[in-house]
Amino acid sequence: MRSLCYLSNYGLHPGGKMFDLIARGGFFMYPIAFCSVAAIGIFLERIWALRRRNVNPPDFMEHIEDLLRKNKISEAVFLCQGYTAPISKVFLAGLKKWHGGFWVVKEAIEERGSREARALERNIGILSTIANLTPLLGLLGTVSGMIKIFNNISFQGTGSSAGLAGGIAEALITTAAGLCVAIPALVCYRFLRERVDSLVSEMEENSLRIMELIEHIGIQGKT
User: Fold this and answer.
1) How many angstroms from the chain centroid is the CA of residue 4?
2) What are phi and psi of 2, to 5 degrees?
């Protein structure tokens, strides 16, 4: 995602000339630049959404366990409604089925837990797609540029070696840009993937604790 900053070392510096770099690389620099912006946006949005206090707030767990131990179900439902964290939505789904018995509550918690786990993965797969796509776009841009160069040679001759080298350098810009976007995108994808797995595992542990607590206070007797 540092492609534009990195490529500015090739004779172009930050500022208005950054657009010159994109123009020199040809048409395929535009989708690569778009992928770079998209990857940055997705990463920032997901890293904010996947903070632990947004998914598994420690204070929420303390309060919900305390209320369930005291058999204050209505207060527990009200507490869940006051949070927007995925774990609160999971427990709220179970508590709404409270009168159905332990196994009904357990099924509701598991079903909602699966939905919330999938929601945590939202847009992360796009980073993997960007990491795979941008090198191919860069290679395609380079091939297209080389074709144009050799077409010009066939009609106009080789001309100066400096001019030929400059044309090849411009053709290779897209390959460099594609790699500069793909590598950070792949790193970000793996980081977020591990983050989601960790949070989902924590959600599962919290859900098991709550279900054990529910079973302990005797709701299974209603099945």
Assistant:
1) 21
2) -100, 20
- Percent over 90 (pLDDT), the chain: 45
pLDDT tens digit string along 114-129?
A: 999 999 999 999 999 9
Phi then psi for residue 98, to 5 deg, are: -50, -45
DSSP H or E stretch at residue 81 = helix 73-81
3-state secondary structure at position 13 = coil
Cα 135 to Cα 214: distance, rounded to the nearest angstrom: 52
Residues in the chain: 223
Place of tokens 């980073």: 127
CB 79 within 8 A of CB 64: yes
Q: Domain coordinates of the chain in residue numbers?
A: 3-51+126-182, 58-120+203-222
The dihedrals phi and psi of 83, each to the nearest 5 degrees, come to: -115, 150
First to last CA, the chain: 55
Q: Which two tokens stand for residue 31?
A: 């989708």
* Cα 166 → chain centroid: 38
Residues 6+ apart with CB under 8 A from 210: 64, 65, 68, 91, 94, 109
Q: Which of 188, 61, 49, 68 is nearest to 119 (CA)?
A: 49
* CA atoms of 45 and 60, how far apart (whole Å): 23
DSSP H helical ranges for 82-123: 86-95, 102-120
pTM as predicted: 0.77
Rounded CA-CA distance 143/174 in Å is: 10
**Residue 69 φ then ψ, to 5°:** -60, -30
